[in-house]
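User: Round two. Same drill as before: sequence, then structure, for each protein.

Assistant: Same drill it is. First protein:
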Amino acid sequence: MDQTKRSYERSKIRNIAIIAHVDHGKTTLVDKLLTQSGTLMGAPVERVMDSNDLERERGITILAKNTGVQYNDYFINIVDTPGHSDFGGEVERTLQMVEGFLLLVDAAEGVLPGTRFVLYKALELNLRPIVLINKIDRKDADVERTEELINNLFLDLAKRDDQLVFPILYGSSRLGFATTDISRPSDSLKPLFDAIINTIPSPQPHESGLQLLVTSLDHSDFLGQIAIGRVFSGSVRVGDQVVLCKDDAVSKPFKITKLYTFLGLERIETDEAHYGDIIAVTGFQEPVTIGTTICQAGQPLPHSYVKIDEPTMAVYVSVNDSPFSGKEGKLLTSRQIRDRLHKELKTNVALRVEDTESPEAFKVLGRGQLHLGILIESMRREGFELQVSAPEVIYKTIDGAKCEPIEYLIVDVLEEHQGTVMELLGRKKAHMVTMQHYENGRVRMEFEIPSRGLLGFRGQFLTETRGTGIATFSFHGYQPYKGDIIMRIKGALVSMEGGMITNYALDTLQERGTLFVRPGDNVYEGMIIGENSRSDDLSVNPCRQKKLTNMRAAGSDDLVKIEPPRVMTLETCMEWIMPDELIEITPQSIRLRKKVLRASLRK
């Protein structure tokens, strides 16, 4: 029998999601599961599920993806989810496709905010848990402490008593092994495969008719829109007449033209699919959205769809109107920016886009700074030129009181930096929840902090801890407004002229603060070229040239030593800027500028 087209009994199917905090080893584990099951043959693969360029560069999962592996007589559908809470929309929509989950926890780092966030979402859906304490091969691994933290976390978050009973395995994604007893080494992931088969229940039909819930979207130039989702009830065949159902709306009937199942990295064309299968479908006559149920024509049975958490942060995205507009990008107009943002809404379920009073600006709302930053970086790489405002949090009125989003922050620092970090967080209205000292000279502190307080925090934190601190956070909820927070304590060095930056000018200016530019760069009036060492903004002339006199010493300009500029990435700029400033983003450059370019008008 051809393995790629093999039809499995429903009792032999398992659907499982892999969840964890960022960088705890999910994607590496999927590589090993694909290889050791024999699904992927040939040369070893590395982070094969991180197909997006940004995912590979940053080493994080941004988009949830699914694959399938054959193991003995079983077929296991695996969903790889993001670990960062900014991409929680991806986690929430894909967890609906499975009956169980595998929670990975780093044996050295232990339970972090992302761990709590993804576990909370999984337990809310009553999924069956398996725990793998990963990276036990690390020198600083503390398996006993990590296991205790996991048990405490389950006690805190479990919705039912049976969620407190789960198998715990120990292993290493990198080395490709897992064991049920840490004193008994293993050389493969067989114990993990067995735990999945024995713990995760097989799929059961929810209704008598067809229910195919769409949880992801793709597009093909030949096939048009492609919907990816889980068959919860019934079966579907190529040529069937079906309708789209969402809430009370039902579409006109259309015919299924193609069906695909997932095996390894490939989509395998098939003639039919049954309840429990995760499949891709084509043939749509009208746009389909995430959360839609595909049902048999004449028998609409919309499946319930989990509510996605609301956005907590917003930025204004507008047409680039700087003096350098149109020099580096191809996509410049408000219509092009609007179309791209609305295209993103079709697949990015946690995003919102609102029109503003200006036809050239749009309010984009997302889960956090990273969520918004990834969208803007993607647009930049596609050839867009645009301007982005400083991020601002989204307030709510609850029981008549103004409330703001709160993050749960965990910091791990050397004891010598404990006081400095506590003072820094105190200024940002953070409330300490717990603190624990470890034998290795480090201390772990947990805080509840307003989302506003984390804007600009990362750079200050790394400076105060000399780069040795670790900080992670996730959305915690809304609480009453905490009062004013001092954001950036230093002003900006703003160019008062346009032209090319000279060595001579920067030699003087580098004493005034930290520079973001280098000699030879082009600037315009109102462009920010550095951070002032004082709290106020300072207008400077970075294009000033040395006057030619007969007293000039030959070769003296060659002796000027200019410090390397601070590299301002998109995320760094989003943390740094103030409400009266903008980030100018083009395919080649990221610049900072004042909203009002002329110094006389700013005053």
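Second protein:
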Amino acid sequence: MEVLAQPKQSGEEYLIDILRDRSIPLEQIILVKGQPSNSDGMVSSLQVHSLVSLIDNDIASKPEPEKIIIDTCAYLIHIMQEIYKTQYQQKDNLVVDQLGMNALQRALSVRVKALPNERNHNIDGCTSILTPPDTSEQVLPSTITKEVEDFLFATRKMRDILFKSQFTHEDGSLFTVDEIREEVVNTGRGNPLVIFIMGFSTEYTLEQCLDAFSPASMSSDEFINDYAKVDEFINEYATGKNLKGEGRDMVDICAFAGIVMALRDQARGKGETVDMEFEEDDLPDYPWEMNPNKPKKNDVYYCVKLGAILHHAQIEAKRMVKKPPAGSAFSHPRARFHQDMSKEEVLPKGDGVALTPQDVSICRSRHDYVEDDSFGGGDDSVYSSRCWCHDGLIGFTHQGAGYKYREFYGHVYSCDKTDDGGWQINSKELGNEFWSTPTTYLADATNDTVWVFADQRIKGFAANRRLNGNVAFFNTSYIFQMADKLQLKEVQRSGDSVKRQKVESSTMKSVGGTLLSFGTERIGYLDNYILQEWNLNDTNRHDGINRMVDMGSVDEDIAQWPAEDVLNLSNNTWMDDTGSAEVTRGKKPDSLRLVDIETPTSVGYLSDNRLSFAYRGHSQIPIYNKDLREISRLVAFGSDDGVDIVHRPTFESMGEENIFVASDKTCVKIFDLRTTKAAMTIRQKCINSTPISVNGNKFLCNKLGSGKGAQMWDLRTQQALYSLPVKWDTDIAWLPAVNNSSAALLTGNGECYKFGKDYDQDDEWEKRGAIQAWADLEKQRSSGGGGEDCCIM
């Protein structure tokens, strides 16, 4: 029996050399006959223990060269994919030795962190790599102007801090224009325009500012009167390079042009901005949004008013920005297309015509808001504890109520078909169901139930559909009680030594627990390696009694029922005296066990009651069966930053249960679960990616950051179609078509795009609404909301 060779002491042999230089392939060591879990009695072989020792010793050894890291990651990914592929095919009843596989996973995880950025997206060897369109210049001029204002304000604040130390002599005299130019050249720090702007305070004259922001070869008279040379000067700056050798940013160029043109007009004494009084922006809606230091349009910057600079900056922005390609005759105006679709022949749809893939491709949709208060009715108070989850045709929203929204108040809803072939949301108000607002929640289409965890209980609100299978009404079907602290400690002590050691040695930061649905049999709650489970049977069903108490008379009200039937948390609630709560004590867990599974940051549900887990800071996605036994793992990501999966990450609704979508901060990968390999990679930095299926055709909706919206991709043509103004922090879900009803992209704030509906092009209000929606979204460009979305965008 072979034992893996240990590394040589010379330091020239690395882990990859040892793993390749062996007589027994790794696949034969990791894949064995027997029970599929070490913790269920399976004894690992000597080769596996030797492999574990080798890898653990290697992890603690000296760093590897970059090329070795790249080769080792690619090799480990390939080996692990082959192992899981063989296991999936179920040849000779082979199963994975989890102890050995965990060692390979650790070896990969420590190296992924050191991969160069240019290899993050293709370390798995995927050859089908799609690149998104460059939309960096497809923005509103008003957005660029606002960013110019922020840019000038920021540089002025920097100047106020650094002016005395950087731009004055020891005797207190100011630097001359030539000395500031010299500073720009000599420092080599940052953006030359930033340093140049910083050097100018209100102490400088108009003539000195003119000298600073004009070419040395041009006289003052030429600068003031020769329009062609000034335009040439601005264009020369625009086509130049920054200190990193990259092209100048649009905001940089527009700021420069705004200053130059405003100075020229002021020097000439002519121009529409000379001696103009500018109107200030409207005040924010809330006091905490006000910035007393915010610049005013009539403030003087470089001997001219800020409003004049912004006026000319916007003119330059209008010249620079690019208009997105046009959509078809029936495309919605909110869609920003990435290729010209106006020449396609598109006819109006008749009533009752089913949804087609072309409707999604051309964005034949109608933007709407859910006509119901179930999404909060526009209440955006800073205290509102907003949350949303959706699955299939059901969902849950929570807004909160009472003093500082500390009371439980939300809605469960169902998307039901109407008589005219459309659909509408029917909801039920949930008020005061708990002593507190929600901790976590889960929409579970498999059981047609919404699960909500708050205070110490989990409640299941089931949708009971009428005889026609249509309009639903909700009732409380289950109430479950969480285990107390004493029970949880006992579970930790009773677990086997391997699991206890993993729990105690874990460096994962707590992300809070998560609710899990294990098909129609049971639900669970996983937190801190402890899994609590409740069976979904008649014994555990709620007795139907609504035990409601008021805070003002809580002792009197709660005395109506036996103490063992109620949960009294009146001394631990944030509610004031006007609040109330439903107090039925829940059923205790049917099972409590220690598992060696960390709490995931996102969970995806697959066919056959399988679950996939994603973790913040992990590059791998394990897949489990309904007993939480690992049956596969996706290891194609070359980054451990922001791996995420949506609630339904496959195309199961159209029968493609093996096509799985996941993303990280570098790319989106479309996996084939049969091979565990990525069949396609979209090199796009996004928050997450939602699969969309229409009549056998696959689309993806990639939610981007930094004011880029949500981008719709067509996997048939392998190209991006258009973007929609969906904010990065707004959840989305795909609502599939039922019979001839329209499908919809539903968002967590109650917006929806109903696909399959013709849009009336004469609706000016809708067009203005589209401009405003993009303007609101693009405010996130400068704030960095969601991070950058792509290396080229």
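The first strand starts at residue 31 and ends at 33.

User: Perfect.
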